[in-house]
Design brief:
Elements: H1 4-24, H2 36-43, H3 54-65, H4 87-99, H5 110-127, E1 134-138, H6 141-159, H7 164-167, E2 176-180, H8 186-193, E3 201-204, H9 214-223, E4 228-233, H10 245-253, E5 258-262, E6 287-291, E7 303-307, H11 310-317, H12 345-379, E8 384-386, E9 394-399, H13 406-420, E10 426-430, E11 433-439, H14 447-461
Helix pairs in contact: 1-3, 4-12, 5-12, 6-8, 6-11, 9-10, 12-14, 13-14
Bound molecules: pyridoxal-5'-phosphate.
Pyridoxal-5'-phosphate binds near residues 235, 237, 262, 291 and 303.
Length: about 450
């Protein structure tokens, strides 16, 4: 039996469906029509006791998916912090699947290990990170935070005479985690995964934009005399605000505290001269987490962790087995929680080459310009308020009600916008009040997309 005709057929069908999907993005409703039960029924309608041809399976999948896909890779999806996928990234991602390399180490795939090495150099350069930082290619921001905080845990406990990789957490010196009250909840999740526990968290007061108040951090730092990790944030998921990293690093410099920066989308501000000042001081942190599947616009799953103490990073993550032969080459699994995994650096490489430094910078800046346009166009209307300082790509909007029920009215308008299908925005609770979030992180969003979406919002609010 020869396998290649099977591949050709399946891939040609996939190519047709994928292309049709991309071409439908400008016109399809941004949120799909099918309900959950509908989709489960359609997917489950096949007899698992029989087999099917590969291209038939692909065709069926595409037909059913058609009614259940969100147009999140398109230019008018502004929910959560999502991002699309650039053409070079999608093409490269297809190759990753075709090559099916195990990116655990040089021994299983020399190519994957070399791609990571080159990406790290380029990313250090584009993000303005210190030379020599170590890096891991993980599934997303969540695991980037886990990995960064695992390196931190190693270091702060080693300084207290405790070998956490060998001795575990029970009986370990207590760790204090200092994080802002508006941190992303993946920090709490990381503390659970790492056995530190959320009770180790000391919440630091934040200002109206969600930024850590330095004086509050100073106090908490003075009160914490044992192993301490500060989890700072670059880019609040609601407001886009940045913790004052410069002051945080100043305060940490007077102690043994480790500074971890959750910059899932905000770290990309560093790629743009215009927005880099928001991150002032970040190069003095100890570890950084970011996502490539958000603002770099590569497919899921793609997160990045960087660490200024490669030895701590490696101590927390490395794997040694008698059948792993080590040379000078990069061994990818030394830097991530995973062992076997896909070669997820390849689409990152493709985007960095395709856009180049200035292209990444322009993509970031363009999204921020779109965000400001949204804010300006909406704020000038009676009954609509922009709640945040639009410093980056996030806009928080409230719709006012004459009877004073701003929360009810805001939820109502959001529901109408979502039903209309021109664009998609989600809701949130910001410091006690309902708000609509607009997040601009898609490479393909045009001025016309923004204007059409503004019209749809105003229609829904009318
Ligand atoms: C998205 C996000 C995360 C989590 O990243 P995932 O890729 O969803 O795991 C963490 N922190 C911030 C600030 C985020 O925006």
């Amino acid at each position: 039996m020869t396998y290649s005709p099977g591949y050709r057929d399946a891939l040609e069908h996939a190519h047709t469906h994928a292309t049709a999907f991309f071409e439908s993005l400008p016109d399809r409703p941004v949120f799909p029509v099918a309900g959950f039960d509908d989709l489960v029924d359609a997917l489950g309608a096949f007899d698992i006791d029989s087999s099917a041809g590969a291209s038939d399976v692909i065709d069926d999948l595409a037909r059913i998916a058609e009614r259940g896909l969100t147009a999140s890779p398109g230019g008018r999806y502004f929910g959560f912090v999502i991002g699309g996928s650039l053409p070079a990234a999608v093409g490269a991602d297809w190759l990753v699947s075709a090559w099916d390399q195990n990116a655990a180490g040089f021994a299983s795939s020399p190519f994957s290990s070399a791609v990571e090495e080159v990406c790290i150099d380029w990313l250090i350069d584009i993000l303005g990170l210190p030379a020599g930082v170590s890096a891991g290619f993980v599934t997303g921001g969540q695991m980037a935070n886990v990995t960064g905080i695992a390196a931190a845990r190693h270091q702060v406990l080693a300084a207290a005479g405790w070998d956490v990789e060998r001795q575990g957490m029970s009986g370990a010196p207590g760790i204090t985690i200092l994080a802002g009250a508006e941190r992303h909840l993946s920090i709490d999740q990381a503390l659970r995964y790492l056995g530190i526990g959320t009770s180790a968290l000391v919440e630091i007061d934040v200002d109206g934009q969600g930024r850590i108040v330095p004086a509050a951090l100073e106090q908490a730092l003075a009160a914490s005399d044992g192993p301490t990790i500060i989890c700072a944030q670059a880019g609040n998921i609601n407001t886009g605000a940045f913790d004052p990293l410069d002051q945080i690093c100043d305060l940490a410099a007077g102690s043994d505290a480790w500074v971890h920066v959750d910059g899932a989308f905000g770290l990309w501000a560093a790629a743009s001269e215009e927005y880099r000042p928001l991150l002032r001081g970040m190069e003095r942190a100890d570890s950084w987490a970011t996502d490539a599947h958000k603002w770099l616009n590569v497919p899921y799953d793609s997160g990045l962790v960087f660490c200024a103490h490669p030895q701590a990073h490696e101590a927390a993550m490395h794997i040694q087995a008698p059948y792993i032969v080590r040379g000078e080459q990069r061994s990818e699994s030394d830097w991530t929680p995973e062992w076997s995994r896909r070669a997820r650096a390849v689409p990152i490489y493709a985007v960095l080459r395709s856009l180049g430094r200035s292209g990444v910078s322009e993509m970031v800046a363009r999204c921020c310009v779109h965000a400001r346009r949204f804010a300006a166009a909406l704020d000038e209307h009676d009954g609509i308020d922009v709640l945040n300082d639009v410093v980056l790509n996030q806009v928080l909007v409230r719709f006012r009600d004459q009877d004073g029920d701003h929360n009810g009215r805001t939820r109502d308008v959001i529901a109408r916008i979502q039903r209309d299908g021109t664009c998609w925005m989600g809701g949130t609770i910001w410091q006690g009040a309902s708000a609509m979030r607009i997040s601009v992180v898609n490479w393909s969003t045009t001025d016309a997309d923004v204007e059409r979406s503004i019209e749809a919002i105003l229609r829904a609010a009318a």
